[in-house]
Structure to design on (100 residues):
């Protein structure tokens, strides 16, 4: 790991996405494996990709020990599996449900 390296991943399911930031690569790989095993699509991203492309998505910082302790892959997938609210044309404009 290089100094200042950040471990970010986008988890997408049912046209909804969340961004996770992990403190290290092993935890990121664990989340990636579990999410993919439950039907989600995972994509690792850089911090440079985050700002122009994924800013505005729900973000969970697993570097925070309280967040890491209280959230699980199942809970994240439950958020993504929740029924989409009808936002009319907004969903099409923004390429999916970012207003979950």
């Amino acid at each position: 790991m290089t100094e200042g390296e950040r471990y970010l991943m986008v988890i997408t399911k049912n046209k909804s996405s969340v961004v996770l930031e992990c403190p290290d690569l092993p935890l990121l790989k664990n989340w990636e494996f579990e999410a993919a095993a439950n039907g989600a699509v995972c994509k690792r991203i850089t911090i440079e990709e985050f700002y122009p492309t994924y800013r505005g998505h729900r973000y969970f910082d697993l570097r925070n020990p309280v967040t890491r302790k209280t959230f699980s892959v199942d809970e994240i997938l439950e958020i993504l599996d929740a029924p989409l609210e009808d936002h009319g044309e907004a969903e099409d404009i923004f390429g999916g449900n970012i207003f979950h």
User: Anything to note?
Assistant: Confidence is low (pLDDT under 50) at residues 93-100. Helices lie at 25-37, 47-54, 65-70, 73-81, 90-93. The longest helix spans residues 25-37. The chain has five helices and four strands.
